[in-house]
Amino acid sequence: MESGVRVPQQKRSIEKRNAVVRAGWELFCEKGYYQTNTAEIAKHAGVSTGIVYHYFQDKKAILKEVVALYIAGLEERMLELLELPSDKDGLKESLERMIDAAAASHTMDRAAHDEYMALALLDDEIRSLFDSFEERILESMGIKLRKAGLQVQSLPIRLRICYGIVEEVCHAYVDGRISPEEFPAARTLAAAAMTRLLDESDDRRERS
């Protein structure tokens, strides 16, 4: 725990701390992290600056809490919609649904996504939060695919490449490089490429 920072126990204290986190989220998205100061966060949360420092060592600590909250919501939605098949049949369709889920997560709160991803490029601690999120998603995918009977060589590497494909399709969609009209075709092509990576039997069928 950070020096001098208290963990709230009572309901009222917890509510004040949560209000600071919400205020940080809203202001970081509205003004940007570097354009927001602690006094503004306190005012937006309806508490004194002293209360903010009661629960957080500095603005960076608030940011880390905010990003962790954002990632938790993102992870919950992703894992909830990550319905990989119980067997090899339907893998491509399941991967298409995964891309849809990822695209929805990227566009659900565009301001938060843009600000926190930009900060991840500049700050090692924030990047590590997103890296850990990626590892948990890949681990979950690996477990589900193995249960479905997909035993392929170098599965972690294949999954990492697949995750990169999903991210590229979603970012291209969010940035407008892929239009809404083009997105279904992009999703289908991406899912087909991922299926080839994850199911070696496709390669064997083509060689036979």
Model description:
- There is one protein chain.
- With 208 residues, the chain is an all-alpha fold.
- It contains ten helices and no strands.
- α1 crosses α6, α4 packs antiparallel against α5 and α5 packs across α8.
- The longest helix is centred in the middle third of the chain and has 24 residues.
- The termini are far apart.
Number of helices: 10
Unreliable parts: 202-208
Strand percent estimate: under 5%
Major pleated sheet: none
Give the radius of gyration. 21 Å
Give the tally of β-strands.
Answer: 0
Broad shape? elongated
Through-space gap between termini: 60 Å
Percentage of helical residues? over 70%
Overall pLDDT score = 86
Provide the structure class. mainly alpha
User: What are the secondary-structure elements, in order, as H or E?
Assistant: HHHHHHHHHH
Question: How would you concisely characterize the structure shown here?
Answer:
This protein is mainly α and 208 residues long.
Layout: helices, strands, pairs:
Layout: H1 11-31, H2 38-45, H3 49-55, H4 59-81, H5 91-108, H6 110-122, H7 124-147, H8 155-175, H9 183-198, H10 200-207
List keywords for this structure.
208 residues, mainly alpha, 10 helices, 76% helix, elongated, disordered C terminus
